[in-house]
């Protein structure tokens, strides 16, 4: 027992690996949020009038809304007027290719383990790196554009593919959707845009890496993925932030559109700074993610590994509009110390023969609170809809909490909906069994936790799976006695 | 929470008067006023627009007076073969002349027992209708089972309701059982009214150490009843409480059932069946609060929904930090039989202790096609086979009723419904 505690101590006292920050010159918006701020951002990004109008409309909507209170998380009120809404590394000229990118910026990504230069040479993943508010570099553009795939920063997309952006922006997550989505629509700075034309199978994993560096800024990025009929894309997202005493706000929006027979796989490894051991600082991660299976036989799959953030508030959802479309949600959410997570999904069955599957694995340790909140809704015309949900919680220590709030609303008699949830700790008998066979307690715990999360980790692309497993081990190994 | 009584007309209910319990009534009134009538914005009443329904259907918000029934009426409404004792109520008023004297058990009007701590178990701050009842309850019944008394035969609480032109029935029941006592209650209501009325009932059950209490409830009052029902109990050390709720009809029925497990090595069981047709709407909210270690709770609610009926289920299990070694199980299964039937279910687990075994399961679907085929292959007509399968589905709940006459009575009702209607 004491040995376990020692290991727990060691691991939980381990510093946040990505807690450094770099001083670079940045172009920042003045503090506060007014119509002027929005005009400032829009002007800075040389946006067309329609986008400015859209932002201003969102701002008006947002002003009339109030902060949601229903989530099972507690945090001091965020003073949105004390934030900076735009921060960009100062670049003399927009780099045309990687060789022109400021080496200091490349160094930041190197420290994150994403060597953009190396990426250039090695065939593998195309990366769009977003630092604070702007996208700094996108790799593999050439290769992708040959196939007609557009993968670039959002601002670039606005300039080069305005018709696409105009068509899909806000079509899945309307600006009126919720408080943070409206805020994002008003002030979003940059993000990634991805367009897969009809019939194209994207040959590599696309990846965005988000990094908050500047202090006192909120990060509001927006990702839009459009997969036309019969296309396929696998998209990865990773996030880190420096260690700071104050809380920072991250309110992103991700929209996915999948046409008939298209498949989009979206994976996230979220490792924002979770706050110190005493619960000081950390990122508030209030994210709206939603995908629409617009065409028949389309498929959207969300996979997330949530280990960071002080407060997480995130529900990647699928609207299953096309007949025979499929929605999937795989999640591992780990909370430790004073972290709070309220995460889950919404599966909205509209089309006939739609299927959805939810696998959520929550792990809470320390004094953290971990909630699953999900909704499965079967609309009247969704004949033969099928859902299977499983949400398991693993508790480590007697100071943490695990909560489940599943909503199941069925309006069609042919629906088959199953939901099951369990809560438990790692069984003494399981540990004993391992011990008996010469496996040390800490290894046994790692083994059991990994096995517990395996169903989800298996869904991750290889590169991410390794990172996710490391993250899991780091936060949890040995935390059970 | 809303500080306004949004539906002002409904507020008239607050004007009815009851006897005694000034302080409790004042507390109830305060709690009600701070909560107001629930709207669909309220998380707890999201799917059950009871306030709206009340506003639409009730014209007179005054308290319903008691009326006369005969011994013959009572006799006619007993279950076949029922041998237990009967306590008769009309519009929530106790009728001592028609009720049995039960040996060894104290039965009194609540107004005669003015030191009863009403509201100490069913706390008014939890639910607006519970608070409303505490503010204006007409009168109630006080039932006390002494220490070590084992009451073999069930006690039937037989309610006759006949409201004139709408009206409100707000009775209150206080049951206490001493240490080592064992008792069974059956609550049955006969509706003689042909207009819509509102019944807002609160039952508080105080169990002793190692006591065993069973509370069965049959809700089959037909189309014109709007009902809010709050039943709450404290389960003490080694105690056991079992509730079976059978809901067969009702314009709009809301049941709040709360079990507070405050003594270890105890057990709480909740079983429910809602078998609905036409436009019935039944909402079951259950709440188990495990505050001490080594206790167990089991929950099984099943629903069969036909026509335009709607079933709502919300099951909460709280396991507090001290409640280590808790076993809590919950299951909710639904079968939808028609295009227009709706089910909204929300099984909710909130757990702060780590050494626990908790699980919930929830399904919504149709009859097993293979089972149906199996029966048909053996020469059973499709309709009959369907009825058989549905009855088997419902039977899992019915079998938890111990009293044979009441179980038979419920079984007949269920079989009639499944055989003829579906």
TrEMBL record, chain A:
Please list which residues make up the signal peptide: none
Q: What residues does the SUF system FeS cluster assembly SufBD N-terminal domain cover?
A: 147-202
Listed InterPro entries: Fe-S_cluster_assembly_SufBD, SUF_FeS_clus_asmbl_SufB, SUF_FeS_clus_asmbl_SufBD_core, SUF_FeS_clus_asmbl_SufBD_sf, SufBD_N
One BP term from GO: iron-sulfur cluster assembly
Taking every annotated instance into account, which residue ranges of this chain make up the domain SUF system FeS cluster assembly SufBD core?
A: 210-451
Superkingdom: Bacteria
Q: Which family does it belong to?
A: Belongs to the iron-sulfur cluster assembly SufBD family.
* Name of this chain's protein: Iron-regulated ABC transporter membrane component SufB
From TrEMBL, chain B:
Which GO BP terms apply? iron-sulfur cluster assembly
Which family would the database say this protein is a member of?
Belongs to the iron-sulfur cluster assembly SufBD family.
**Which species expresses this protein natively?**
Algoriphagus aquimarinus
What InterPro entries does the entry give? Answer: Fe-S_cluster_assembly_SufBD, SUF_FeS_clus_asmbl_SufBD_core, SUF_FeS_clus_asmbl_SufBD_sf, SUF_FeS_clus_asmbl_SufD, SufBD_N
Q: Which Pfam families match?
A: SUFBD_core, SufBD_N
Q: What is this protein called?
A: Iron-regulated ABC transporter permease protein SufD
Which residues are in the SUF system FeS cluster assembly SufBD core domain? 165-393
* All residue ranges annotated as the SUF system FeS cluster assembly SufBD N-terminal domain in the record: 20-155
């Amino acid at each position: 027992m004491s040995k376990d505690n020692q290991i727990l101590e060691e691991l939980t006292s381990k510093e946040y690996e990505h807690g450094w920050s770099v001083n670079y010159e940045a172009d920042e918006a003045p503090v506060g949020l007014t119509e002027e701020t929005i005009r400032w951002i829009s002007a800075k990004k040389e946006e067309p009038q329609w986008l400015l109008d859209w932002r201003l409309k969102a701002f008006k909507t947002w002003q009339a809304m109030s902060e949601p209170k229903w989530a099972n998380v507690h945090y001091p009120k965020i003073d949105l007027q004390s934030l900076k809404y735009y921060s960009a590394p100062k670049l003399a000229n927009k780099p045309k290719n990687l060789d022109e990118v400021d080496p200091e910026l490349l160094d930041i990504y190197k420290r994150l383990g994403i060597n953009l230069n190396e990426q250039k040479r090695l065939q593998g993943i195309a990366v769009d790196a977003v630092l604070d508010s702007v996208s700094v570099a996108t790799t593999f553009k050439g290769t992708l554009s040959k196939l007609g795939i557009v993968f670039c920063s959002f601002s670039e997309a606005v300039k080069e593919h305005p018709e696409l952006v105009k068509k899909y922006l806000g079509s899945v997550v309307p600006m009126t959707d919720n408080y943070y989505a409206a805020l994002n629509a008003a002030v979003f700075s940059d993000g990634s845009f991805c367009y897969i034309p009809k019939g194209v199978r994207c040959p590599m994993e696309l990846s965005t890496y988000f990094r908050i560096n500047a202090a006192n800024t909120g990060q509001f990025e927006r990702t839009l993925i459009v997969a036309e009929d019969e296309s396929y894309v696998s998209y990865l997202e990773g996030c880190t932030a420096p260690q700071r005493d104050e809380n920072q706000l991250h309110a992103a929006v991700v929209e996915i559109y999948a046409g008939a027979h298209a498949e989009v796989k979206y994976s996230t490894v979220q490792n924002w700074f979770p706050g110190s051991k005493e619960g000081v600082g950390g990122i508030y991660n209030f994210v709206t993610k939603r995908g629409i299976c617009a065409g028949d036989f389309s498929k959207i799959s969300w996979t997330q590994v949530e280990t960071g953030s002080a407060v997480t508030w995130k529900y990647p959802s699928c609207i299953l509009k096309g007949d025979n479309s499929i929605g999937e949600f795989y999640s591992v959410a780990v909370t430790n110390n004073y972290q709070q997570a309220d995460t889950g999904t919404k599966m909205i069955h509209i089309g006939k023969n739609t299927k959805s599957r939810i696998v959520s694995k929550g792990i809470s340790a320390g004094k953290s609170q971990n909630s699953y909140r999900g909704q499965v809704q079967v609309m009247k015309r969704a004949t033969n809809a099928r859902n299977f949900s499983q949400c398991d919680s693993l508790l480590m220590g007697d100071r943490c909490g695990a909560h489940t709030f599943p909503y199941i609303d069925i309006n069609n008699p042919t629906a088959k909906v199953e939901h099951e949830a369990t809560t438990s700790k790692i069984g003494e008998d399981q540990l004993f069994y391992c011990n008996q066979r010469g496996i040390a307690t800490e290894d046994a715990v790692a083994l059991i936790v990994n096995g517990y999360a395996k169903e989800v980790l298996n869904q991750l692309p290889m590169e991410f799976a390794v990172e996710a497993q490391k993250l899991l081990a780091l936060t949890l190994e040995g935390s059970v006695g | 929470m809303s500080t306004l009584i949004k539906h002002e007309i409904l507020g008239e209910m607050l004007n009815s008067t009851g006897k005694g319990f000034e302080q409790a009534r004042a507390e109830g009134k305060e709690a009600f006023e701070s909560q107001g009538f629930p709207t669909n914005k309220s998380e707890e009443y999201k799917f059950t627009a009871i306030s709206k329904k009340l506003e639409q259907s009730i014209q007179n918000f005054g308290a319903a007076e008691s009326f006369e029934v005969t011994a013959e009426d009572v006799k006619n409404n007993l279950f076949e073969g029922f041998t237990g004792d009967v306590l008769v109520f009309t519009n929530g008023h106790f009728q001592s002349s028609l009720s049995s004297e039960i040996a060894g058990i104290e039965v009194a009007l609540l107004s005669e027992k003015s030191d009863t701590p009403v509201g100490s178990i069913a706390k008014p701050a939890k639910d607006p209708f519970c608070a409303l009842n505490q503010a204006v309850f007409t009168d109630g019944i006080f039932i006390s089972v002494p220490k070590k008394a084992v009451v073999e035969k069930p006690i039937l609480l037989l309610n006759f309701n006949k409201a004139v032109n709408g009206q409100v029935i707000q009775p209150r029941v206080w049951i206490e059982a001493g240490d080592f006592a064992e008792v069974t209650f059956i609550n049955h209501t006969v509706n003689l009214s042909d207009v819509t009325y509102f019944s807002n009932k609160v039952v508080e059950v105080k169990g002793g150490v190692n006591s065993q209490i069973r509370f069965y409830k049959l809700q089959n009052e037909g189309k014109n009843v709007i009902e809010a029902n709050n039943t709450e109990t404290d389960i003490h050390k080694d105690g056991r409480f079992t509730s079976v709720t059978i809901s067969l009809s009702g314009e709009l029925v809301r049941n709040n059932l709360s079990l507070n497990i405050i003594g270890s090595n105890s057990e709480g069981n909740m079983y429910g069946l809602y078998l609905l047709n036409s436009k019935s709407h039944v909402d079951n909210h259950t709440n188990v609060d495990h505050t001490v270690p080594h206790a167990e709770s089991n929950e099984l609610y099943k629903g069969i929904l036909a026509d335009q009926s709607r079933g709502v289920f919300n099951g909460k299990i709280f396991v507090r930090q001290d409640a280590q070694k808790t076993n809590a199980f919950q299951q909710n299964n639904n079968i939808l039989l028609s295009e227009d039937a709706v089910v909204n279910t929300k099984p909710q687990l909130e757990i702060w202790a780590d050494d626990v075994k908790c699980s919930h399961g929830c399904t919504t679907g149709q009859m097993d096609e293979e089972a149906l085929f199996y029966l048909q292959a053996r020469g059973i007509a499709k309709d009959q086979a369907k009825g058989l399968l549905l009855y088997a589905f419902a039977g899992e709940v019915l079998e938890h009723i111990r009293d044979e006459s009441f179980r038979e009575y419920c079984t007949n009702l269920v079989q009639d419904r499944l055989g003829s209607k579906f």
